[in-house]
Amino acid sequence: MPAKTKSIHSEVERQILKLLAKTTPDPRRIDSRIFALSKKLGREVYSDLLHLLCHLRFTPRRAEAHWDAILEHRQKLSEKFGSVVDFRVALLDYFISVNQHFRNPKIIEIKIFQKTSDSALRDELTGLHNYRYFRSELDRELKRAKRSGSSLSLVLFDVDHFKGYNDRHGHLEGDRALKAVARAIQRGARDSDLVARYGGEEFGAILPGVCKPTACAIAERIRARISRERLRAGSGELAAKVSVSGGVATYRADAGDPLALIEAADRALYQAKANGRDRIVSAGTENREFPRIDVELPGMLQVFCRQPERFVTENLSEHGLQLRCGAPLEEREIFQLRITPSQGGSEIQAVARAVRVRKKGAAFVAGAKFVDIAFPHLERLKQHLAAKQNGKARRPARRAALVTS
């Protein structure tokens, strides 16, 4: 039986609808595009494809097998009738006569079907996806990030003093402001990002494959764009400007599941508002969330466009470290690390940001927070810290490589 119905990945939907918009879509081109998407997004692409075309949902493995069988069935039909058969005709015949999933099929124009489906998944005012779709996609993207070890960031935006704006200019102008904010966020995001109206005057953006520094840069760019805009009221007069506050959270660095990621971004958003609004705040920069373990690990670090520098850790946690080095560091500088925690152990790679720096004699002592660390490397770090905490860790090698680029 088909698997439980769920939403279609937005990028798959865009790509397939674009190919289907042609009068006579080339099945070879569609097949090659689907194959390329499956390499990028995983085998769930085949489930999304069949769900989009005929509203049947299969597991990825079964969907891929059905897709191959449909293309083979199309070839047989073309040879039988002596003319090229559209793959959609082959798909319908396949599920009616070969693999009987349709008993009484209803033919409907896909644009009409998509319009009907979208009405349940899109916000009527802004045209963005709604909270229901947003949560479904966040769950999906987080599972994909866990499988691939890639990054995933979430940004929550909230319009500042929106109730006051509504009271001064009226609800119609408030609606216009929300639509303007929605357009600005959509334009500032990438094609692969998902922007949704989270609720009321709050918006969310899911950024697949994006580490925290990049997510903060994207969010700041959107915030600045909105802050510069001046909206015109219905009379043509300039209304008060609109600003937004934003909170950024990243998978692994701040949370490991969808709900916790939302909560981390929401706490950062609350902090942005408490600090004066019209600003972006990153989650987890205020307090340590994991215990630090005293451990000395030699290595090297590299700030962008500078030569690699040696350093020694003074303490280390799942979330950050304190290090000592001879090169000057500045607060908020980003650097990459590559550490070998013990002799013969697998290296740990991470990206960190210096959050505080002080000079100690001829050396500099910096507290740094991990802003991006792939899941396998985080697991190695956890194992090393657990062993160290239990007194089972071996003495670290005197030579280790921590490299950043």
Topology:
Layout: H1 10-20, H2 27-41, H3 44-54, H4 60-81, H5 87-98, H6 110-119, H7 131-148, E1 152-159, H8 162-169, H9 171-188, E2 194-199, E3 202-208, H10 212-228, E4 244-250, H11 258-274, E5 280-282, E6 293-294, E7 298-303, E8 309-316, E9 320-325, E10 334-339, E11 348-360, E12 363-372, H12 375-389
Parallel strand pairs: 4-5
Antiparallel strand pairs: 1-3, 1-4, 2-3, 6-8, 7-8, 7-10, 8-9, 9-12, 10-11, 11-12
Helix pairs in contact: 1-2, 2-3, 3-4, 4-5, 8-9, 9-10
What does this structure look like?
This protein has 405 residues and is α+β, with helices and mostly antiparallel strands. It folds into three domains: 10-119, no CATH class; 131-282, Reverse transcriptase/Diguanylate cyclase domain (Alpha-Beta Plaits, 2-Layer Sandwich); 293-389, predicted glycosyltransferase like domains (Thrombin, subunit H), CATH 2.40.10.220. The chain has helices at residues 10-20, 27-41, 44-54, 60-81, 87-98, 110-119, 131-148, 162-169, 171-188, 212-228, 258-274, 375-389, and strands at 152-159, 194-199, 202-208, 244-250, 280-282, 293-294, 298-303, 309-316, 320-325, 334-339, 348-360, 363-372. The strands form two sheets. The protein has a six-stranded antiparallel barrel with strand order 7-8-9-12-11-10. Strands 2-3-1-4-5 form a five-stranded mixed β-sheet, with helices on both faces. α1 (10-20) runs antiparallel to α2, α2 packs across α3 and α9 crosses α10 (212-228). The longest helix is centred in the first third of the chain and has 22 residues, at 60-81.
